[in-house]
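Field guide to reading this record: the first block holds the primary sequence, the second block holds the structure written as discrete tokens, and the final block holds curator observations. Each block starts with its own label. This record concerns alpha-L-rhamnosidase, catalogued under organism Sphingobacterium paludis.

BLOCK 1 — SEQUENCE
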Amino acid sequence: MKLVIDSILRNKNIIVFMTLFNIVLLSGHVSPVYAKLGIQQVLISGRENPLGINTLSPSFSWQLTSDSHDVLQKAYKIEVSIDRHFSGGRNLLWNSDWVSTAQSLHVMYAGAALTAGQTYFVRLHAQDNQGNTAVSAVQSFHIGLLEPADWGGARWITKDVLPDSLINPLPLSSSKLRMDKTYDLPVFRKTVQVSRKLKSSIAYISGLGHYELLLNGKVVDDAVLQPGWTKYDKEAYYVVYDLTKSWKKGKNSLAVLLGNGFYYIPPIKGRFQKHKVAFGLPKLKMKVVNTYEDGKQEVIVSDESWKVARSPITFSSMYGGEDYDASVLPASWTMPHYDDRQWSNAQLVDGPALTAQETEPVRVMQEFQPKNIRKDADGRSDVYDFGQNASGIVSLKMKGKPGDTVRVYPAELLNEAGLPNQKHSGSPYYFQYIFGKESEVEWRPRFTYYGFRYAQVQRRPAQNGNIQILDIKAQHIRNGARQIGAFQSSDSLFNQIHGLIDWAIKSNMVSVFTDCPHREKLGWLEQLHLMGPSVHYNYDVARLFKKSLRDMRFSQTANGLVPEIAPEYVQFDWGGDMFRDSPEWGSSAILLAWYAYQWYGDLTFLTENYPMMQKYADYLQAKAKDNILYQGLGDWYDLGPERPGVSQLTPKGLTATAIYYDDLKVLGKIATLLDDDEGKRRYDSLKTEVYNAFQKTFYKADVASYGSGSQTSLAMPLYMGLVDSLNRDDVVNNLVAAIVKQDTSFTAGDIGHRYLLQVLQQENRDDLIFAMHQDDTRPGYGYQIRKGATALTESWAALPNVSNNHFMLGHLMEWFHAGLGGLGQEDHSVAYKHLRIEPRMIDTIKQCNLAFESPYGKVSFQREDKNYMLDIPVNSLCTLVLPADTDFLVNNKPLNMFKTLRVADTLELELGSGIWKIVPHKK
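BLOCK 2 — STRUCTURE
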């Protein structure tokens, strides 16, 4: 069976996909072959065989597999050693012995003290409730450099130093464009002699803003835009590599290129510049520990002995593009034999504190060949259509002569003349290559990217000559998080909408969840708690969510404000604090942490972020006027009579205060989990005060309505529990009436749309959700597809003057998985220990298939009419909700042989692990 890692192949009517756990949902259920009991997917502090963890107390999680039914873990044993072969004695640091428990997630290390910069090995044992045992393959983990002293003599090195007067880590958006001197990007070299056989070689490197590391002329990995961007005045990331197999005996060369990234936005006229952030100039810090077979070590560190020169990358900007001049250095500059004696010695400089990067790196995840080429009459400018709007870069194979230039303008849209239109996505932005001595080259930009579907390639010969484009590809880049979910139904439009939203997720999932991949690339926070539920059904993003929360902690202000962007690189001062202080955005600091704990079962989502949450709640309380909040953007980009932007239909105070109430409700639950009794009392008390103030300010008793009566005005109080139970039916009826009055079209925006869908799903009005999103003749998802969009757009109407690849507004994807497919978990469950699958609209959508990998393992659910196929992972349970008007067979056995519960017009069937076939009983 062929495994498809990230690609989803589409046609107009169906999505064909294969999941990572060998299940083909469209061609029947193919069950994997397992032993009686097996151990797989061992995670150490959230990663497989991690290089560089940031703790001396790692946690261990694992998945179990079995070919039996109703399998639960009975006990586990964990062994940790400094010896891969587990020879025992002093090498064995921890033997937990058998622990009688079903726990298989986040088991904390409890052995002898571990040491920074060391590699350790792990072996897991498990027993199940059916008498079977299993042992895992040996796993490993390497602890990073935890303290500054662990770096030894390694120093930050650079080519130039930015004067302190020009360092500006948080510029105002209204600040004037500063035109100072330009600074060359640096490249570094270090020659190293290896005289005997290596046992191991571990490298630690941080290059700011981004780096590319080569050893003997070969790039050490396939990642791009390393390391992930952070709040650089608080911390930066370093990356760990195992270089053992890359060294050769004799002379070797380490070579590093640097790009500006978000560390420094160069103020160059003629190139787009969103803002003017400057933490400093590009710099490098590196340490390599080579251990030889005879036990001796050699440590190589970045210091003033390293050689530095001007880079062939002559311009690098996250907003303006990238230029490469091959005449600056010969291609051989990265090789051991290159003579660097004319280069300068590096300068020593200060730099930020370093933390090992624990998120997946950004990688090229998919390539697109041109679907169409439009050639200009002059023969020197072609426009390529790659067929998909995605985040990425352009890769070129070309021939030319010294001084010839190839310039590439990427764009989402074309103008009336058929040329790339960057007017509303950041202009001018381009990639450029100038030929040196090499006549045939393959090149792509290293330290920038853009959101585009089209690319204009301009050939600019130095003299009369012919530049040949031999090959061109669009390379989609995104965070390397595994795809762990999939959706397909008999409704072709819904399949297309799922793909539309998925491309916006992929295009805005880098080392930050961005809003768009072109003009801003900023981490606007409302997306995390509103779109996080959709994302987690499809991608393994636990570590990326952890980083997002860490970015919020480092961006939080002294008075407790969590700004709307994290990492905060610019302070938007348009309209006062409107674009900095919006509770619907900052509340991701509380809501995302709570959701992530429920999804992954990792208590550190709460413990690490609880102080931030408390400070933010204090800030909101101080900001409130009589317990009502009025600041912020409100229901951003709702559908009103004016151009979309700040909320038009719903009072801003309503959305802000409703979110504030939800924050307090969640904080009460978190305080209970963390045994903070005082906090629990405080948040519950304040929640009551906010509830009463909300009713007094926004409730209109005579018409059983809230605020303006808009869809958002009614949906948010219903979702948050702000509606008294005596009034709930009347408010729900008014919401339904408001939708019907709009001919089942929706008006809710960025904030309200998710809550609108959630309330309708809770009230079993999936028929309205269906009607609201099936019509492609009015603004919405289908309308965007009809207008030619291939990724979710910023506006419901796919306006050409805003972003056409945007992360917000994709909330229908959550309904596809959790509503239409019915995938969720019981209220008492954490990390999908006890799944609940309650499919909707089974009489309208005849067929629906889901795949999902929970922390416990693979889940698949296939439904065709009232025929079901279900695969539940070991150590889990599932409640499947069936229609009560039908008798079923479960794996050819009568239903009364299983645990069932009748609730109203449904039947709740509880099943353990394994593959289950549930079909109507034909008597």
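BLOCK 3 — OBSERVATIONS
The domain at 364-479 is CATH 2.60.120.260 (Jelly Rolls).
Confidence is low (pLDDT under 50) at residues 1-31.
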